[in-house]
Amino acid sequence: QRKNIIEQCTIDEIPLPKKGVARGKGGGAQEGNEPDDGQDDEMEAEGGSCSHSQSAIQAKEEIAKDRFDYSRLSREHRRDMSEKEQSKVRNQQEEELAKAAEIINSMNPNMKAIDQLKEVEVRYQAVTDESKAAKENSQHLSKEFETVKQKRCDLFISCFEHVKGCIDVIYKELTSDPTRVEQSVGGSAYLTLNNQDEPYLDGIKYDTIPPGKRFMDMQNLSGGEQTIAALAILFAINSYSPAPFIVLDEVDAALDARNVAKVTRYIQARRKEQQCVIISLKERFYEKADALVGICRDISGGHSRVFTLDLTAYEAVA
Predict the structure, then answer these.
(1) Is the whole model's pTM more than 0.85, yes or no?
(2) Beta strand 245-249 pairing with 275-279
(3) In angstroms, what is the C-alpha Rg of the chain?
(4) Are 172 and 185 in contact (CB under 8 A)?
(5) Given the DSSP bridges, would you call strands 303-310 and 245-249 parallel, antiparallel or unpaired?
(6) What is the reported pLDDT for 316?
(7) Can you give the three-state secondary structure of the chain, one letter per residue?
(8) Could you tell me which residues are beta bridge partners of residue 68?
(9) Are 255 and 265 in contact, with CB atoms under 8 Å apart?
């Protein structure tokens, strides 16, 4: 029975704790010093009177190979038991073994888990590499974005500071009137950013104070005063990056004769710096021009006719 149990444990790959075997002075086998609960006597009985012969020594070594270490058992299990007690312990252990086997069977292990794990590891590595590449690309794009953002802010601030610096001077020139003491200096104009950190994401506050008047919101100014303010900001922006020419379409519609004279005086003073094409119906405006372009309807032909007149020669004669 003992041999059958050992063979079954070997088949089931169940490790059994065995005692170590060492060679003595006579070449025989010597076990460890741990107590084996009567197994030494059993070995001597099996050896018999042939203990000094070579065959007895070999037999003892074979038996010693199957000597087990019972030191890990509890004292209760190592003591001599009756058949009834042994049967009870055996039944108890068989019940525990059956429960453990039932638990293992209920687990229903997936035998392909290793292969599936390898596939998951491959996919995980691919996703990890893709995530790393995406992260590096994101960092690169973030740096480029910050560079473009800073450049955008610098360009905006450069233009804003230039316009802010010259808007007041231009507005004073457009509103000053040397013939009137209260308007000899002209008005004042101010530009303020609503967002100092990212100014291009928000608006710009534009306020003007006409000469001889108190501060009012832009929407509370008259039509003529709003027109002068609009022309001032237009000329200030154009001074930062001058255009080949400026087209003004009836900007004098809301201006009285005095303000028309102020605007024409300002444009004439800069005729060599910027070219203006002005559409107007007021003589005070186009009489100061260098050339006139007239458009009328041709009744006979049913289409429009264009007339041009160079006034520089007349100015020279005058």
Answers:
(1) no
(2) parallel
(3) 55
(4) yes
(5) unpaired
(6) 52
(7) CHHHHHHHHHHCCCCCCECCEEECCCCCEEECCCCCCCHHHHHHHHHHHHCCCHHHHHHHHHHHHCCECCCCCCHHHHCCCCHHHHHHHHHHHHHHHHHHHHHHHHHCCCCCHHHHHHHHHHHHHHHHHHHHHHHHHHHHHHHHHHHHHHHHHHHHHHHHHHHHHHHHHHHHHHHCCCCCHHHCCCCEEEEEECCCCCHHHCCEEEEEECCCCCCCCHHHCCHHHHHHHHHHHHHHHHHHCCCCEEEEECCCCCCCHHHHHHHHHHHHHCCCCCEEEEECCCHHHHCCCCEEEEEEEECCCCEEEEEEEECHHHHHHC
(8) 18
(9) no
* pLDDT at residue 143, as a whole number: 95
Cα(313)–Cα(57) distance, rounded to whole angstroms? Answer: 144
36-79 pLDDT, tens digit per residue, is 444 444 444 444 444 445 544 544 554 555 577 777 777 666 66
Query: Which residue from 185, 232, 173 is spatially nearest to 212, judged by alpha carbons?
Result: 185
pLDDT digits (tens, 9 = 90+) for 73-119: 776 666 667 778 778 888 888 898 889 888 877 777 677 888 888 99
Alpha-carbon distance of 134 to 114, in angstroms, equals: 30
Residues in the chain with pLDDT values less than 70: 1-2, 20-66, 75-80, 109, 181-183, 315-318
